[in-house]
Design goal:
Elements lengths: L4 E4 L9 H16 L3 E4 L11 H14 L5 E2 L15 H13 L3 E4 L3 H13 L15 H9 L5 E4 L7 E5 L3 E5 L7 E4 L7 H11 L4 E5 L6 H11 L5 E5 L2 E2 L15 H6 L4 H10 L13 H7 L10 E2 L2 H12 L4 H8 L9 H8 L9 H4 L13 H6 L5 H14 L5 H15 L3 H13 L7 H8 L1 H15 L1
Parallel strand pairs: 1-2, 2-3, 9-10, 11-12
Antiparallel strand pairs: 4-5, 5-8, 6-7
Helix pairs in contact: 1-10, 6-7, 9-11, 12-13, 16-17, 16-18, 16-20, 17-19, 18-20
The structure holds one RNA strand of 77 nucleotides.
RNA sequence: GGCGCGUUGGAGAAGCGGCUUAACUCACCAGCCUUUCACGCUGGCAUCCAGGGGUUCGAAUCCCCUACGCGUCACCA
Protein backbone atom coordinates (compact mmCIF):
# COMPACT_ATOMS: atom_id res chain seq x y z
CA UNK A 1 0.00 0.00 0.00
CA UNK A 2 1.16 3.48 -0.79
CA UNK A 3 2.17 5.81 1.93
CA UNK A 4 -0.63 7.34 3.91
CA UNK A 5 -0.86 11.04 3.19
CA UNK A 6 -3.73 13.06 4.59
CA UNK A 7 -4.45 16.71 4.76
CA UNK A 8 -6.32 19.42 6.51
CA UNK A 9 -7.32 22.09 4.03
CA UNK A 10 -9.14 24.96 5.69
CA UNK A 11 -10.25 28.07 3.94
CA UNK A 12 -9.05 31.07 5.90
CA UNK A 13 -12.40 32.79 6.17
CA UNK A 14 -12.59 32.96 9.92
CA UNK A 15 -11.10 31.52 13.08
CA UNK A 16 -10.58 27.78 13.35
CA UNK A 17 -13.84 26.33 14.57
CA UNK A 18 -14.58 23.20 16.51
CA UNK A 19 -15.59 21.18 13.49
CA UNK A 20 -12.45 22.12 11.64
CA UNK A 21 -10.32 21.35 14.65
CA UNK A 22 -11.88 17.91 14.86
CA UNK A 23 -11.24 17.25 11.18
CA UNK A 24 -7.66 18.36 11.60
CA UNK A 25 -7.27 16.16 14.66
CA UNK A 26 -8.70 13.07 12.98
CA UNK A 27 -6.44 13.55 9.98
CA UNK A 28 -3.46 14.14 12.23
CA UNK A 29 -4.21 11.06 14.31
CA UNK A 30 -4.80 8.94 11.26
CA UNK A 31 -1.46 10.02 9.84
CA UNK A 32 0.37 9.33 13.09
CA UNK A 33 -1.25 5.99 13.55
CA UNK A 34 -0.28 4.89 10.06
CA UNK A 35 3.15 6.51 10.03
CA UNK A 36 2.02 8.78 7.25
CA UNK A 37 2.26 12.45 6.42
CA UNK A 38 -0.04 15.17 7.58
CA UNK A 39 -0.29 18.17 5.30
CA UNK A 40 -1.87 21.55 5.89
CA UNK A 41 -2.95 23.38 2.79
CA UNK A 42 -4.78 26.67 2.61
CA UNK A 43 -7.77 26.99 0.33
CA UNK A 44 -7.93 30.71 -0.17
CA UNK A 45 -9.66 30.95 -3.52
CA UNK A 46 -12.55 32.86 -2.04
CA UNK A 47 -10.95 36.27 -2.35
CA UNK A 48 -13.86 38.04 -0.73
CA UNK A 49 -13.76 36.18 2.54
CA UNK A 50 -10.22 34.93 2.86
CA UNK A 51 -7.77 36.79 5.00
CA UNK A 52 -4.25 36.37 6.22
CA UNK A 53 -5.46 37.07 9.74
CA UNK A 54 -7.72 34.03 9.59
CA UNK A 55 -4.88 31.92 8.34
CA UNK A 56 -2.79 33.05 11.28
CA UNK A 57 -5.59 32.27 13.68
CA UNK A 58 -5.99 28.80 12.26
CA UNK A 59 -2.29 28.10 12.55
CA UNK A 60 -2.15 29.39 16.10
CA UNK A 61 -5.11 27.32 17.15
CA UNK A 62 -3.64 24.19 15.62
CA UNK A 63 -0.37 24.82 17.42
CA UNK A 64 -2.19 25.49 20.65
CA UNK A 65 -3.98 22.18 20.34
CA UNK A 66 -0.70 20.43 19.77
CA UNK A 67 -1.50 19.47 16.20
CA UNK A 68 1.51 19.97 13.99
CA UNK A 69 2.11 19.05 10.39
CA UNK A 70 5.14 17.77 8.58
CA UNK A 71 4.29 19.35 5.27
CA UNK A 72 2.40 22.45 4.24
CA UNK A 73 2.32 26.14 4.86
CA UNK A 74 5.21 27.46 6.95
CA UNK A 75 7.05 24.16 7.06
CA UNK A 76 7.16 23.66 3.29
CA UNK A 77 7.64 20.38 1.49
CA UNK A 78 8.21 18.93 -1.93
CA UNK A 79 4.75 19.85 -3.16
CA UNK A 80 4.99 23.53 -2.36
CA UNK A 81 3.42 25.99 -2.56
CA UNK A 82 0.60 25.12 -0.16
CA UNK A 83 -1.67 28.08 -0.70
CA UNK A 84 -4.08 27.67 -3.57
CA UNK A 85 -3.74 31.24 -4.77
CA UNK A 86 -0.07 30.52 -5.28
CA UNK A 87 -0.80 27.51 -7.44
CA UNK A 88 -3.13 29.03 -10.00
CA UNK A 89 -1.11 27.89 -12.99
CA UNK A 90 -1.59 24.30 -11.89
CA UNK A 91 -5.33 24.59 -12.12
CA UNK A 92 -5.20 26.44 -15.39
CA UNK A 93 -3.19 23.62 -16.87
CA UNK A 94 -5.62 20.98 -15.73
CA UNK A 95 -8.58 23.01 -16.93
CA UNK A 96 -6.95 23.40 -20.32
CA UNK A 97 -6.58 19.66 -20.59
CA UNK A 98 -10.24 19.21 -19.87
CA UNK A 99 -11.08 21.86 -22.45
CA UNK A 100 -8.85 20.22 -25.04
CA UNK A 101 -10.40 16.83 -24.57
CA UNK A 102 -13.89 18.25 -24.82
CA UNK A 103 -14.72 17.38 -21.24
CA UNK A 104 -15.19 20.97 -20.26
CA UNK A 105 -16.48 24.00 -22.10
CA UNK A 106 -16.79 27.75 -21.84
CA UNK A 107 -20.09 29.03 -20.60
CA UNK A 108 -21.24 32.60 -21.17
CA UNK A 109 -24.53 32.52 -19.35
CA UNK A 110 -25.04 35.35 -16.92
CA UNK A 111 -25.59 34.71 -13.26
CA UNK A 112 -29.07 36.16 -13.55
CA UNK A 113 -30.08 33.75 -16.29
CA UNK A 114 -28.82 30.81 -14.36
CA UNK A 115 -30.40 31.91 -11.14
CA UNK A 116 -33.73 32.18 -12.93
CA UNK A 117 -33.48 28.69 -14.34
CA UNK A 118 -32.44 27.44 -10.97
CA UNK A 119 -35.44 28.91 -9.24
CA UNK A 120 -37.76 27.62 -11.92
CA UNK A 121 -36.38 24.10 -11.61
CA UNK A 122 -36.59 24.24 -7.86
CA UNK A 123 -40.19 25.38 -8.07
CA UNK A 124 -40.95 22.43 -10.30
CA UNK A 125 -39.31 20.17 -7.79
CA UNK A 126 -36.49 19.28 -10.11
CA UNK A 127 -32.76 19.19 -9.69
CA UNK A 128 -31.59 22.72 -10.45
CA UNK A 129 -28.93 21.67 -12.91
CA UNK A 130 -27.44 23.79 -15.61
CA UNK A 131 -29.16 23.29 -18.96
CA UNK A 132 -25.95 22.79 -20.89
CA UNK A 133 -26.89 25.53 -23.29
CA UNK A 134 -23.35 26.77 -23.92
CA UNK A 135 -21.99 23.31 -24.51
CA UNK A 136 -22.56 23.37 -28.24
CA UNK A 137 -21.58 26.92 -28.99
CA UNK A 138 -19.73 27.25 -32.28
CA UNK A 139 -16.45 29.08 -32.53
CA UNK A 140 -18.26 31.96 -34.18
CA UNK A 141 -20.85 32.20 -31.41
CA UNK A 142 -18.14 32.13 -28.83
CA UNK A 143 -16.28 34.85 -30.67
CA UNK A 144 -19.39 36.99 -30.63
CA UNK A 145 -19.79 36.58 -26.87
CA UNK A 146 -16.15 37.38 -26.33
CA UNK A 147 -16.52 40.46 -28.50
CA UNK A 148 -19.30 41.61 -26.20
CA UNK A 149 -16.77 41.47 -23.45
CA UNK A 150 -18.37 38.57 -21.61
CA UNK A 151 -15.90 36.68 -19.51
CA UNK A 152 -16.84 33.00 -19.50
CA UNK A 153 -16.65 30.41 -16.77
CA UNK A 154 -15.44 26.91 -17.51
CA UNK A 155 -17.95 24.17 -16.86
CA UNK A 156 -17.28 20.52 -16.59
CA UNK A 157 -19.57 18.30 -18.61
CA UNK A 158 -20.92 15.38 -16.63
CA UNK A 159 -21.64 12.62 -19.11
CA UNK A 160 -24.39 10.12 -18.48
CA UNK A 161 -23.28 6.80 -17.13
CA UNK A 162 -23.31 4.53 -14.15
CA UNK A 163 -23.99 5.99 -10.76
CA UNK A 164 -20.91 7.34 -9.04
CA UNK A 165 -19.81 4.99 -6.33
CA UNK A 166 -18.13 6.12 -3.14
CA UNK A 167 -16.64 3.43 -0.94
CA UNK A 168 -16.73 5.64 2.07
CA UNK A 169 -14.45 4.60 4.88
CA UNK A 170 -16.95 5.48 7.55
CA UNK A 171 -20.32 5.31 5.85
CA UNK A 172 -19.89 2.38 3.52
CA UNK A 173 -21.07 2.32 -0.08
CA UNK A 174 -22.84 5.43 -1.25
CA UNK A 175 -24.13 6.02 -4.78
CA UNK A 176 -25.00 9.19 -6.64
CA UNK A 177 -26.74 9.27 -10.01
CA UNK A 178 -24.73 11.18 -12.59
CA UNK A 179 -27.64 13.10 -14.02
CA UNK A 180 -28.24 14.44 -10.58
CA UNK A 181 -24.92 16.21 -10.68
CA UNK A 182 -25.23 18.52 -13.65
CA UNK A 183 -22.52 20.47 -15.46
CA UNK A 184 -20.77 22.46 -12.81
CA UNK A 185 -18.36 25.36 -12.86
CA UNK A 186 -14.72 24.52 -12.36
CA UNK A 187 -13.14 27.87 -13.15
CA UNK A 188 -14.79 31.19 -12.36
CA UNK A 189 -14.92 34.00 -14.86
CA UNK A 190 -11.98 35.67 -13.15
CA UNK A 191 -9.86 32.60 -13.83
CA UNK A 192 -9.84 31.35 -10.26
CA UNK A 193 -10.76 27.70 -9.80
CA UNK A 194 -13.76 26.67 -7.82
CA UNK A 195 -13.34 24.54 -4.70
CA UNK A 196 -14.38 21.19 -6.16
CA UNK A 197 -11.86 21.56 -8.93
CA UNK A 198 -8.95 22.93 -6.96
CA UNK A 199 -9.16 20.19 -4.31
CA UNK A 200 -9.01 17.48 -6.90
CA UNK A 201 -5.96 18.95 -8.59
CA UNK A 202 -4.22 19.55 -5.29
CA UNK A 203 -5.10 16.26 -3.70
CA UNK A 204 -3.82 14.44 -6.74
CA UNK A 205 -0.63 16.43 -7.12
CA UNK A 206 0.07 16.23 -3.42
CA UNK A 207 -0.46 12.50 -3.52
CA UNK A 208 -3.15 12.50 -0.89
CA UNK A 209 -4.15 8.93 -0.11
CA UNK A 210 -7.13 9.50 2.17
CA UNK A 211 -9.54 12.38 2.24
CA UNK A 212 -11.06 12.64 5.69
CA UNK A 213 -13.48 15.49 6.05
CA UNK A 214 -16.84 16.55 7.40
CA UNK A 215 -20.05 14.98 6.26
CA UNK A 216 -21.20 18.24 4.72
CA UNK A 217 -18.82 17.39 1.89
CA UNK A 218 -20.37 14.06 1.07
CA UNK A 219 -22.47 15.46 -1.73
CA UNK A 220 -19.42 17.20 -3.20
CA UNK A 221 -17.58 13.96 -3.52
CA UNK A 222 -19.31 12.66 -6.67
CA UNK A 223 -18.33 15.89 -8.45
CA UNK A 224 -14.76 15.34 -7.44
CA UNK A 225 -14.73 11.70 -8.42
CA UNK A 226 -16.05 12.57 -11.84
CA UNK A 227 -13.17 14.99 -12.22
CA UNK A 228 -10.63 12.38 -11.22
CA UNK A 229 -12.05 10.14 -13.90
CA UNK A 230 -11.90 12.80 -16.58
CA UNK A 231 -8.34 13.69 -15.69
CA UNK A 232 -7.37 10.06 -15.66
CA UNK A 233 -6.26 10.17 -12.06
CA UNK A 234 -6.64 7.61 -9.34
CA UNK A 235 -9.10 8.67 -6.65
CA UNK A 236 -8.03 8.77 -3.04
CA UNK A 237 -10.03 6.95 -0.40
CA UNK A 238 -12.78 9.04 1.16
CA UNK A 239 -14.09 9.11 4.68
CA UNK A 240 -16.84 11.45 5.78
CA UNK A 241 -17.02 12.18 9.45
CA UNK A 242 -20.39 12.99 10.93
CA UNK A 243 -21.25 16.51 11.92
CA UNK A 244 -20.89 18.02 15.34
CA UNK A 245 -24.26 19.25 16.47
CA UNK A 246 -25.11 21.97 18.92
CA UNK A 247 -27.50 21.53 21.85
CA UNK A 248 -30.44 22.13 19.54
CA UNK A 249 -29.23 19.32 17.29
CA UNK A 250 -28.49 21.51 14.31
CA UNK A 251 -25.04 21.97 12.87
CA UNK A 252 -22.86 23.74 15.35
CA UNK A 253 -22.84 27.44 14.74
CA UNK A 254 -22.40 30.71 16.52
CA UNK A 255 -26.03 30.55 17.43
CA UNK A 256 -25.79 27.48 19.59
CA UNK A 257 -22.55 28.07 21.38
CA UNK A 258 -18.95 29.02 21.06
CA UNK A 259 -17.57 27.68 17.84
CA UNK A 260 -14.03 28.82 17.49
CA UNK A 261 -11.23 27.22 19.39
CA UNK A 262 -9.94 30.58 20.60
CA UNK A 263 -13.20 30.92 22.49
CA UNK A 264 -12.25 27.87 24.49
CA UNK A 265 -8.71 29.03 24.89
CA UNK A 266 -9.94 32.35 26.24
CA UNK A 267 -12.43 30.67 28.51
CA UNK A 268 -9.58 28.91 30.24
CA UNK A 269 -9.78 25.43 28.79
CA UNK A 270 -6.71 23.26 28.53
CA UNK A 271 -5.70 22.19 25.02
CA UNK A 272 -5.17 18.61 26.21
CA UNK A 273 -8.75 18.49 27.43
CA UNK A 274 -10.18 19.94 24.24
CA UNK A 275 -8.24 17.48 22.12
CA UNK A 276 -9.38 14.62 24.31
CA UNK A 277 -12.96 15.81 24.07
CA UNK A 278 -12.85 16.36 20.32
CA UNK A 279 -11.45 12.87 19.81
CA UNK A 280 -14.41 11.44 21.69
CA UNK A 281 -16.79 13.32 19.45
CA UNK A 282 -17.37 10.78 16.74
CA UNK A 283 -14.73 8.30 17.73
CA UNK A 284 -15.05 5.67 20.42
CA UNK A 285 -12.11 4.11 22.23
CA UNK A 286 -12.02 0.39 22.65
CA UNK A 287 -11.80 0.14 26.41
CA UNK A 288 -13.53 1.90 29.25
CA UNK A 289 -11.00 4.62 29.71
CA UNK A 290 -11.92 8.01 28.35
CA UNK A 291 -8.97 10.11 29.33
CA UNK A 292 -6.40 10.08 26.57
CA UNK A 293 -3.25 12.05 25.98
CA UNK A 294 -2.38 13.00 22.44
CA UNK A 295 0.24 10.30 22.48
CA UNK A 296 -2.28 7.65 23.47
CA UNK A 297 -4.70 8.87 20.84
CA UNK A 298 -2.01 8.62 18.22
CA UNK A 299 -1.59 5.00 19.15
CA UNK A 300 -5.21 3.96 19.38
CA UNK A 301 -7.09 6.01 16.82
CA UNK A 302 -8.75 4.04 14.06
CA UNK A 303 -11.30 4.85 11.41
CA UNK A 304 -13.44 1.81 12.01
CA UNK A 305 -14.37 3.16 15.41
CA UNK A 306 -15.58 6.42 13.96
CA UNK A 307 -19.32 6.80 14.30
CA UNK A 308 -21.73 7.38 11.46
CA UNK A 309 -24.24 9.30 13.47
CA UNK A 310 -23.78 12.93 14.40
CA UNK A 311 -22.49 13.89 17.84
CA UNK A 312 -23.97 16.52 20.09
CA UNK A 313 -21.43 18.81 21.66
CA UNK A 314 -21.87 18.28 25.41
CA UNK A 315 -20.49 21.24 27.28
CA UNK A 316 -20.88 19.51 30.65
CA UNK A 317 -18.66 16.70 29.61
CA UNK A 318 -16.03 19.05 28.18
CA UNK A 319 -15.98 20.87 31.51
CA UNK A 320 -15.67 17.64 33.42
CA UNK A 321 -12.84 16.50 31.19
CA UNK A 322 -11.12 19.81 31.55
CA UNK A 323 -11.49 19.51 35.30
CA UNK A 324 -9.79 16.13 35.19
CA UNK A 325 -6.75 17.68 33.57
CA UNK A 326 -6.86 20.81 35.68
CA UNK A 327 -6.94 18.97 38.98
CA UNK A 328 -3.67 17.32 38.15
CA UNK A 329 -1.88 20.61 37.75
CA UNK A 330 0.28 21.95 40.55
CA UNK A 331 -0.88 24.98 42.51
CA UNK A 332 1.93 27.00 41.00
CA UNK A 333 0.76 26.32 37.49
CA UNK A 334 -2.85 26.96 38.38
CA UNK A 335 -1.85 30.22 40.04
CA UNK A 336 -0.21 31.39 36.85
CA UNK A 337 -3.16 30.36 34.74
CA UNK A 338 -5.83 32.02 36.83
CA UNK A 339 -3.86 35.22 37.23
CA UNK A 340 -5.40 36.85 34.11
CA UNK A 341 -8.88 36.39 35.50
CA UNK A 342 -8.25 37.83 38.96
CA UNK A 343 -6.09 40.86 38.62
CA UNK A 344 -4.87 42.38 41.83
CA UNK A 345 -5.15 39.44 44.17
CA UNK A 346 -2.22 39.17 46.49
CA UNK A 347 -2.46 35.62 47.73
CA UNK A 348 -2.56 34.05 44.30
CA UNK A 349 -0.91 30.85 45.32
CA UNK A 350 -3.21 30.35 48.28
CA UNK A 351 -6.16 31.10 46.00
CA UNK A 352 -5.00 28.52 43.50
CA UNK A 353 -4.47 25.96 46.21
CA UNK A 354 -7.91 26.67 47.65
CA UNK A 355 -9.86 26.53 44.44
CA UNK A 356 -7.94 24.07 42.34
CA UNK A 357 -10.21 21.11 42.87
CA UNK A 358 -13.32 23.19 42.49
CA UNK A 359 -12.51 24.54 39.09
CA UNK A 360 -13.35 22.94 35.81
CA UNK A 361 -11.95 25.82 33.81
CA UNK A 362 -9.60 28.62 34.79
CA UNK A 363 -12.10 31.34 34.09
CA UNK A 364 -14.47 29.87 36.66
CA UNK A 365 -12.24 31.35 39.31
CA UNK A 366 -14.26 34.53 38.93
CA UNK A 367 -17.34 32.79 40.27
CA UNK A 368 -15.59 32.05 43.55
CA UNK A 369 -14.35 35.53 44.25
CA UNK A 370 -17.45 36.75 46.12
CA UNK A 371 -16.89 33.94 48.58
CA UNK A 372 -14.14 35.94 50.22
CA UNK A 373 -14.34 39.39 48.71
CA UNK A 374 -16.55 42.16 50.09
CA UNK A 375 -17.84 42.79 53.56
CA UNK A 376 -21.50 42.29 52.81
CA UNK A 377 -22.95 39.00 53.94
CA UNK A 378 -23.73 36.64 51.12
CA UNK A 379 -27.29 35.59 50.34
CA UNK A 380 -28.15 32.51 52.26
CA UNK A 381 -29.87 29.52 50.75
CA UNK A 382 -32.46 27.45 52.54
CA UNK A 383 -30.42 24.48 53.65
CA UNK A 384 -27.76 26.86 54.94
CA UNK A 385 -30.28 28.79 57.01
CA UNK A 386 -31.33 25.50 58.50
CA UNK A 387 -27.82 25.00 59.87
CA UNK A 388 -27.93 28.19 61.87
CA UNK A 389 -31.08 27.09 63.71
CA UNK A 390 -29.07 24.55 65.68
CA UNK A 391 -29.02 25.60 69.34
CA UNK A 392 -25.28 25.21 69.77
CA UNK A 393 -24.62 27.71 67.01
CA UNK A 394 -24.47 30.92 69.10
CA UNK A 395 -21.98 29.32 71.41
CA UNK A 396 -19.80 28.11 68.53
CA UNK A 397 -19.82 31.39 66.69
CA UNK A 398 -19.12 33.47 69.78
CA UNK A 399 -16.20 31.31 70.69
CA UNK A 400 -14.91 31.38 67.13
CA UNK A 401 -15.24 35.13 67.02
CA UNK A 402 -13.27 35.62 70.21
CA UNK A 403 -10.47 33.40 69.06
CA UNK A 404 -10.37 34.90 65.60
CA UNK A 405 -10.06 38.36 67.06
CA UNK A 406 -7.18 37.22 69.20
CA UNK A 407 -5.49 35.19 66.49
CA UNK A 408 -1.94 36.38 66.01
CA UNK A 409 -1.09 34.81 62.71
CA UNK A 410 -4.13 35.12 60.50
CA UNK A 411 -3.57 32.20 58.17
CA UNK A 412 -5.31 29.06 57.02
CA UNK A 413 -3.33 27.07 59.53
CA UNK A 414 -4.23 29.54 62.25
CA UNK A 415 -7.93 29.31 61.44
CA UNK A 416 -7.72 25.58 61.41
CA UNK A 417 -6.20 25.69 64.88
CA UNK A 418 -9.01 27.85 66.15
CA UNK A 419 -11.64 25.55 64.72
CA UNK A 420 -9.95 22.70 66.49
CA UNK A 421 -9.87 24.57 69.74
CA UNK A 422 -13.56 25.40 69.46
CA UNK A 423 -14.33 21.75 68.99
CA UNK A 424 -12.33 20.85 72.02
CA UNK A 425 -13.86 23.47 74.27
CA UNK A 426 -17.44 22.81 73.24
CA UNK A 427 -17.04 19.08 72.92
CA UNK A 428 -18.96 19.21 69.68
CA UNK A 429 -18.46 17.09 66.58
CA UNK A 430 -16.77 18.34 63.43
CA UNK A 431 -19.84 19.20 61.46
CA UNK A 432 -21.41 21.16 64.32
CA UNK A 433 -18.44 23.47 64.36
CA UNK A 434 -17.45 23.69 60.72
CA UNK A 435 -20.91 24.11 59.29
CA UNK A 436 -22.08 27.13 61.27
CA UNK A 437 -18.80 28.89 60.59
CA UNK A 438 -18.96 28.03 56.90
CA UNK A 439 -22.54 29.16 56.58
CA UNK A 440 -21.99 32.34 58.57
CA UNK A 441 -19.07 33.30 56.38
CA UNK A 442 -20.22 32.19 52.97
CA UNK A 443 -23.95 31.66 53.13
CA UNK A 444 -23.81 28.12 51.81
CA UNK A 445 -23.00 24.60 52.95
CA UNK A 446 -20.81 23.90 49.98
CA UNK A 447 -17.52 25.29 48.86
CA UNK A 448 -13.75 25.13 49.20
CA UNK A 449 -11.95 24.55 52.49
CA UNK A 450 -13.33 27.00 54.99
CA UNK A 451 -10.03 27.65 56.73
CA UNK A 452 -8.40 28.69 53.48
CA UNK A 453 -11.40 30.74 52.50
CA UNK A 454 -11.17 32.53 55.84
CA UNK A 455 -7.50 33.26 55.33
CA UNK A 456 -8.24 34.63 51.87
CA UNK A 457 -10.97 36.77 53.37
CA UNK A 458 -8.76 38.45 55.88
CA UNK A 459 -9.65 39.37 59.43
CA UNK A 460 -11.76 42.45 58.66
CA UNK A 461 -14.17 40.87 56.27
CA UNK A 462 -14.38 37.76 58.34
CA UNK A 463 -15.34 39.75 61.43
CA UNK A 464 -17.93 41.79 59.57
CA UNK A 465 -19.59 38.75 58.05
CA UNK A 466 -19.53 36.91 61.35
CA UNK A 467 -21.10 39.89 63.07
CA UNK A 468 -23.87 40.06 60.51
CA UNK A 469 -24.62 36.39 60.78
CA UNK A 470 -24.74 36.50 64.57
CA UNK A 471 -27.03 39.47 64.52
CA UNK A 472 -29.37 37.54 62.31
CA UNK A 473 -29.66 34.62 64.68
CA UNK A 474 -30.89 36.82 67.49
C1' G B 1 -38.76 19.72 -3.69
C1' G B 2 -34.49 16.28 -5.53
C1' C B 3 -30.35 13.81 -3.78
C1' G B 4 -27.61 11.98 0.48
C1' C B 5 -26.80 10.66 5.56
C1' G B 6 -28.56 9.47 10.27
C1' U B 7 -32.14 7.63 14.45
C1' U B 8 -29.56 2.80 21.06
C1' G B 9 -31.20 6.43 28.22
C1' G B 10 -31.04 13.77 29.43
C1' A B 11 -25.70 13.79 26.58
C1' G B 12 -21.31 11.02 24.45
C1' A B 13 -21.54 5.90 23.17
C1' A B 14 -20.40 0.09 22.91
C1' G B 15 -22.92 -3.43 20.16
C1' C B 16 -21.58 -6.19 13.55
C1' G B 17 -27.54 -12.63 14.17
C1' G B 18 -27.29 -16.37 19.91
C1' C B 19 -21.91 -14.46 25.08
C1' U B 20 -27.01 -8.67 26.13
C1' U B 21 -31.34 -9.77 32.13
C1' A B 22 -28.07 -3.54 26.20
C1' A B 23 -20.78 -2.22 28.25
C1' C B 24 -18.44 2.25 29.52
C1' U B 25 -18.29 7.88 30.37
C1' C B 26 -20.82 12.71 31.61
C1' A B 27 -25.17 14.50 34.09
C1' C B 28 -28.69 13.10 37.88
C1' C B 29 -30.11 10.42 42.61
C1' A B 30 -28.65 7.63 47.13
C1' G B 31 -24.76 6.11 50.37
C1' C B 32 -19.54 5.80 52.04
C1' C B 33 -15.02 8.41 53.00
C1' U B 34 -13.48 13.17 54.89
C1' U B 35 -12.85 17.22 62.05
C1' U B 36 -16.16 21.08 57.15
C1' C B 37 -16.34 21.30 51.83
C1' A B 38 -14.54 19.21 47.60
C1' C B 39 -11.78 15.23 45.33
C1' G B 40 -12.45 10.04 45.50
C1' C B 41 -15.19 5.51 46.11
C1' U B 42 -19.79 2.32 45.98
C1' G B 43 -24.61 1.62 44.23
C1' G B 44 -29.13 3.25 41.38
C1' C B 45 -30.75 5.21 36.70
C1' A B 46 -33.04 2.19 28.74
C1' U B 47 -38.03 -4.53 30.61
C1' C B 48 -35.53 -2.06 25.73
C1' C B 49 -32.71 -0.14 20.89
C1' A B 50 -37.75 6.02 16.25
C1' G B 51 -42.58 3.30 14.61
C1' G B 52 -44.62 -0.65 11.67
C1' G B 53 -44.08 -4.97 8.83
C1' G B 54 -40.95 -9.09 7.20
C1' U B 55 -36.57 -12.87 7.09
C1' U B 56 -34.86 -16.41 10.97
C1' C B 57 -35.24 -21.68 15.66
C1' G B 58 -33.39 -16.74 17.37
C1' A B 59 -32.72 -9.43 15.58
C1' A B 60 -30.79 -3.44 18.60
C1' U B 61 -27.97 -6.20 14.94
C1' C B 62 -30.43 -8.48 7.96
C1' C B 63 -34.62 -6.59 4.34
C1' C B 64 -38.87 -3.26 3.26
C1' C B 65 -42.09 0.83 4.41
C1' U B 66 -43.31 5.16 7.35
C1' A B 67 -41.94 9.13 10.60
C1' C B 68 -38.55 12.44 12.36
C1' G B 69 -33.73 14.98 12.34
C1' C B 70 -29.70 16.77 9.70
C1' G B 71 -26.66 17.85 5.38
C1' U B 72 -26.45 19.45 0.34
C1' C B 73 -28.21 21.37 -4.20
C1' A B 74 -23.52 28.78 -5.81
C1' C B 75 -18.79 31.99 -10.61
C1' C B 76 -18.58 29.73 -1.03
C1' A B 77 -15.46 26.46 0.67
Amino acid sequence: MDKVRVRFAPSPTGPLHIGGARSALFNYLFAKRNHGDFIVRIEDTDLERSSRASEENIKESLHWLGIDWNEGIDVGGCHAPYRQMERLNTYTEAAQRLLDTGKAYYCYCSEEEIEQERQAALARGEMPNYSGRCRHLTAAERGAKEAQGIKPVIRFHVEPGEAVHIADLVRGDVYFERDGIGDFVIVKSDGIPVYNFAVVVDDHLMEISHVLRGEEHLSNTPRQIVLYEALGWETPAFGHISLILGKDRSKMSKRNGDVSVVNYQDAGFLPEALVNFLALLGWAPEGEEEIFSMKQLEESFSLDRVSKSPAVFDMDKLKWLNGQYLHQLSSEVVAAKIAPYVDGIAQLELLADTLKNHLNTFSEVKDFLPLFQGEAALPMDEEAAEVLKEETVPQVLTLFQEKAAALEEFSAAGIKGILKAVRKETGLGGASVFMPVRVALTGTKHGPDIDKLAALMGRDILMKRLEAAMAKIK
